[in-house]
Specification:
Elements (H helix, E strand, L loop, with lengths): L1 H36 L1 E7 L2 E2 L4 E10 L12 H13 L7 E6 L2 E6 L5 E7 L35 H6 L2 E8 L2 H4 L1 E2 L3 E6 L6 E7 L12 H10 L11 H8 L4 E10 L3 H11 L5 E5 L13 H14 L3 E8 L4 H11 L4 E7 L15 E3 L15
Amino acid sequence: MTSSHTGKPMDILRLSHTLTWFGLCFAFFANTSAQARTKKVDIHVYPGYCAGTRCVIKGRIVRKSRFIKGTAKQGRLGSMMAMIRRFTRKYIPYASVRVSFQNKQKVVLADKKGYFYATFVQPTQLPPSSRPATRTSQPTTPSKHTLGYRTYQMMPDKALKKWGVLPVVAELAWPKKQKLQGTPTHAFMLQGSDLPGISIISDIDDTLIETFVYKKSKMLRKLLLSNPSQVRIFPHALDALRQLHKGPTTLHYLSGSPVQLLDRMLAIFQHHNFPVGSLNMKRLSGQEKYSLLHQTKYKADAIREIFKAYPKHRFVLVGDSGEKDPEIYAAIRRLYPKQVLAIYIHNVTKANATQKRFRGIRLFTHYKELLSPSSKPSQ
């Protein structure tokens, strides 16, 4: 009798412990589930340029990946995993993004592919690079041709605007309501101009960076297994680019790589301190999609848009002999004979300079050839 009476309190105690354990488990999983419902995202903003007074800031919202660390010193396995995730991670459709530009703000809605566009109109003003220097100006701000992707981030907004680099900030609008979490992204737009000047349009792969696009297996191996610090920049390539970039010029990078590689390309630019310029990359989906393998139409369209944005500029086109740059640039020169000032082609394939495709083109093997004062094109 006694044992049966004492068993009841023990059963109640066990039941209490069991209920407590289930309660703790439920609370843990409920909290984990709530956290899972809040998606961590990255906000990509493409360094762009204004067409006159009209500035269209473009970007995309994508899921954050723990493999993409934003570091220039990942190992080979980490680099490969990051590359795979760049092409497999999901985008965030219909997210609200707040874009700040030139003391104005706009909230825009991303489309079904996660792309967003914010259009601003700024007052017409004299391009900073055209303003004459005064004796009272202080040499605290570097000249524009030394302004790099790493150094520009250390400068105040006023100093950047002085050189026609207009800061942009993009962040999530009402993140809690959207159940999204992400840090603001800082980027820039190049100021438009309707005054005479020079613009440089430069390809990247095999023009400035050793990529081996013309050797697909070698290109894939380097792309998958190398991090931004291991990328090889051709000797003196950036020095030559900076020399061309002196004076009232704008610089525009044109890459045939897909936009999924944006964060990697920006990490390369920052690690090696590339001169500041807009960055055009190929979109494989959305309103402005192009084929992954075909470069001619994509590059020609991108170049024509830059020409329209700077109608009174003359252009220096820089590319390489690996694929179709000579043919694309020659076709552009036929369309805009008065605007194309010079075409420089980096000879990475040991091509013969007498080939028809190089007619009227400066073919060079080493960037040192472009560093002499006589190599700079005259206006």
